[in-house]
Amino acid sequence: MNHARSLQRAALLALLPVLLAAGLCLAPVPRWLMGAALGAALLLAVERLRALGRLAERPLQTLSNLLAAIREGDYSFRARTPTSADALGDVFRELNTLSELLQQQRTKAMEATALLRSVMEEIDVAVFAFDEEGRLQLVNRAGEAFLGQRQAHLLGRPAAELGLAEALAEEGPGLLDLALPGRVGRFERRRGAFRQAGRPHQLLVLSDLTRPLREEERQAWQRLIRVLGHEINNSLAPIQSLSGSIATLLERQGPEWQEDAAQGLAIIGSRAQALGRFMESYTRLARLPEPQLREVDAGALAHKLAALEQRLPVAVEEGPAMGFPGDADQLEQALINLLRNAVDSALTCGGGVRIGWRRAGSWIEFLIEDEGTGLPPSGNLFVPFFTTKPGGSGIGLVLARQVAEGHRGSLHLANREPRGARAVLRLPLKG
User: Fold this and answer.
1) What is the pLDDT along the chain (431 residues), one digit of tens a residue?
2) Is it true that 123-208 and 294-428 share their CATH fold?
3) Domain segments of the chain as ranges
């Protein structure tokens, strides 16, 4: 029975005692019996009217509970709908449909938000969101790596304190050089605006272009070195063979010109050998393999490197006892190149050299500092073949940086005050 018919039946039941009492008034019955019948009829009518009120109130209360649940965001409640059609049943059915639709939309929104968060955490692009006061409100995992700290220590801090004021101030996309705690290099910057809870926010996206540019540069040099090596080796082989043959023939000639010719041919052979060594040093750049990661003890590595340098005593500044994943052979070669440069610089002015290590968040940093002449005023320090030292090969710094980036780290050089230079080789503590 639908709600409307239930109300009609309850109303009839409420009127029935009154009608019966009215019928008794027309019958010849004693007054006391008539009064008792009227009293009983009124009491029964009042009770029926109360039942009618409760019957009318119950669906309204259900309707109120459903609307309150929807307002609170709880879409799991459903109303029981009558099998027969009536207006109240239609209202309940529409409310149930609305709750189900809202629940589906919220589920989709939650899944989309979870997907967005997963994508933000996995992409190798730093995403930052700042409020209208310039304070950080959101950062992804790549952003944490760029800033060298966890999210809990970054949220709420102003952009200037994080080193992002310049990136946040400029309009439109562009390129800029940044020295962030966790990453140094050239970045592509994009900025946008959005609103959250009615308040304006700024979105900052930073892409590190250093490694892609370095990889393109390295591949270009590899191709060039392979071509040069092939062509020069093709020239060196006949030169060496010919010089040996001529030297043999000269042994059969007179003593007047034998000495001069032999000396000239010796120079040819010597220069050919030097050119071979020269090209071999460059081909090392193209042949550097992927690092084989094993546990490396930072203290043992630093002490070993200091002991290898014999031209000048190298002081070791002790850091915390710690290990990290790395290729010990490649790291030794990179740090030896840096240490050799520091000693070369210190020897020119009688300064000292020291090597040490420290922990910087999720990174380990090897520091090599000297009291020498400092870095030359040139932007070509990491360009292959470029050197400011007589007889230098121009691959030491390039090789050291290539090793660092092969370990997902970085190499940074800077001058010190009042004199000298500092090299910082930064490597991740986890592979």
Assistant:
1) 555 566 556 666 666 666 666 665 655 656 666 666 666 666 766 666 666 666 666 777 777 888 888 888 887 877 777 666 667 777 778 888 888 888 888 888 777 767 777 777 777 788 899 998 889 988 888 888 888 888 888 898 998 888 888 888 877 777 887 778 877 777 888 888 888 778 888 888 888 877 676 666 667 666 666 656 655 665 666 666 666 666 666 666 655 556 656 666 676 676 666 666 656 655 665 567 788 899 999 999 999 999 888 888 999 999 999 999 999 988 998 899 899 889 988 998 888 999 999 998 889 999 999 998 888 765 556 655 555 555 545 567 888 888 898 898 989 988 988 889 999 999 999 86
2) no
3) 3-103, 123-208, 217-287, 294-428
CATH-assigned architecture of domain 123-208 = 2-Layer Sandwich (3.30)
CB 165 within 8 A of CB 159: yes
Q: What is the pTM of this model?
A: 0.46
Which residues does 301 contact at the CB level (< 8 Å), separation at least 6? 328, 331, 332, 335
Pairing of strands 314-317, 199-208: unpaired
Q: 10 Å Cβ neighbour count for 334?
A: 26
Q: Is 422 helix (H, G, I), strand (E, B) or coil?
A: strand
CB burial class (10 A; 0-12, 13-18, 19+) of residue 281?
middle
Q: What is the CATH number of domain 294-428?
A: 3.30.565.10
- CA-to-CA dists, residue 377 to 78, 381, 388, 415, angstroms: 76, 9, 10, 10
206: β partners: 126, 189
Report the alpha-carbon distance of residue 378 to residue 397 in Å, rounded. Answer: 13
Question: Helices in 184-254 by DSSP H: which ranges?
Answer: 210-250
Rounded to whole angstroms, the Cα distance separating 358 from 364 reads 6
b/e per residue 120-157 (b: at least 16 CB within 10 A): beeeebbbbbbeeebebebbbbbbbbbbbbeeeebeee
SS3 track for 330-383: HHHHHHHHHHHHHHHHHHCCCCCEEEEEEEECCEEEEEEEECCCCCCCCCCCCC
Residues in a beta bridge with 202: 130, 193
Residue with tokens 């193209």: 286
